[in-house]
Amino acid sequence: MTIDLTRRTLLQLAGATSLAMAAAAAARAEGMPQGGGPTYASRTPMRVGMVTLRVKNLDKVADYYRDVIGLTVMERSASVARLGAGGVALLVLEARPDAAIEPRNAAGLYHTAFLMPSRKDLARWLVAAASHRVPLSGFADHLVSESVYLDDPEGNGIEVYADRDPSQWQWSEGSVKMATDELNIPDLLSLTNTRVADYARAPEGLRVGHMHLRVGDLAQAESFYHGTIGLDPTRKRNGAAFLSSGRYHHHLGMNVWQSQGAGQRDDATTGLAWFSLVTAKQDILAAQEERLRKGGAQLTTLANGVEAVDPWGTRVRLLKA
Q1: Which pLDDT value is given to residue 241?
Q2: Which of 22, 257, 260, 263 has its CA 20 to 30 A from that of 213?
Q3: Calpha distance 12→229 (Å, rounded)
Q4: For 81, phi and psi rounded to 5 degrees?
Q5: Which residue positions does the secretion signal occupy (predicted)?
Q6: How crowded is the C-beta side of 78, counted as CA atoms within 13 Å?
Q7: Pairwise CA distance, residues 105 & 107, whole Å
């Protein structure tokens, strides 16, 4: 397939007239002021495992993640679709045809971030997205990573990104330097042939690199995800906080930009059902469970871990790898 892939094409897909506008859109997606090696996120003591979404139109949403992100459909029925990459399940979609769409000002999912194994993979994906005229909502250079933003058919946010090598991340007093700068599109696209869309399937190493949540109160969210779950703060600014395990830039982002003061989520709506944090270390899992029980958290015992509920009803599963 021959593609007329120009900067103008990408800007049109992002609904922007300039790179600055696209970066501004990405700034809104990450809450930054305007203007690691991909396996690092999975080598940390804890990492994001998989995500489960409640959706109204199962076929439409499953086809989107298959065709746009390149996930492989591993299981599909009238009520559920399981998708992944490299034989690893990353996304489960549960059919809720009668559900209302979760409001943007409710607590819940801000975006699921799919981490490409390499910068070249991100370039190949971007060429394919542009060739299929996939609407984009922004793209930016975050210093630690390079990102493209979009939404699935039911408004669930998505980030597709590639990390810079961790040696290039700048840390100061426990805080990692991030920004929302203009993405150098020509430099990114120089890694691949822009005239041929050769991204038909997600690379085997694609994983969910991080989750970004809408919460009702930042201090309360930090108390739960840092104090109880055990993730470490890596950055805080502009109504958002970022946390990680093992000095990754962030496995979890949280913000109150649209959801300040949000109450309990409605399980009868679409959106995030649960996500998992996975560890290979039994002592970490045991410590998490002890903190949760001491804190009076609502817990459900699972075969390989526990499920906890955050202050707004978002469920997080802590699982043994």
Answers
A1: 97
A2: 22
A3: 41
A4: -135, 135
A5: 1-22
A6: 0
A7: 7
Contacts of 170 (CB under 8 A, 6+ apart): 143, 176, 177
CA distance 220 to 172: 25
Can you give the pLDDT at residue 278?
96
In a domain, 2, yes or no: no
Q: CA-to-CA distance for 119 and 146, rounded, in angstroms?
A: 8
Does the pTM surpass 0.70? The reply is yes
- Domain-located, residue 291: yes
> Any idea what DSSP says for residue 200?
-
The answer to the question of residue 205 being in a domain is yes
What's the token pair of residue 125?
């994906």
Residue in 89, 116, 73 with CA at minimum distance from that of residue 205? 116
Structure token pair of residue 278: 């996975």
Q: Is the pLDDT of residue 34 over 50?
A: no
Angstrom distances, CA of residue 285 to CA of 39, 179, 289, 295: 22, 33, 6, 15
Residue 3 predicted with pLDDT over 50: no
C-beta pairs of 166-174 under 8 Å, 24+ apart in sequence:
166/36, 166/37, 166/40, 166/247, 168/144, 169/36, 169/143, 169/144, 169/249, 170/143, 171/247, 174/232, 174/233, 174/234
**Structure confidence by residue, pLDDT tens digits, 159-195:** 999 999 999 999 999 999 999 999 999 999 999 999 8
CA dihedral (75, 116, 272, 21) in degrees, to 10, reads -140
Q: Which residues pair with 158 in a beta bridge?
A: 112, 150
Terminal-to-terminal C-alpha distance of the chain? 41
Q: Is residue 1 part of a domain?
A: no
CA distances from 95 to 7, 60, 146 (A): 37, 11, 32
Domain that holds residue 287: 7-320
CA distances from 186 to 1, 25, 271 (A): 20, 19, 35
Can you tell me the distance from the alpha carbon of 52 to that of 98, in angstroms, rounded to the nearest whole number? 17
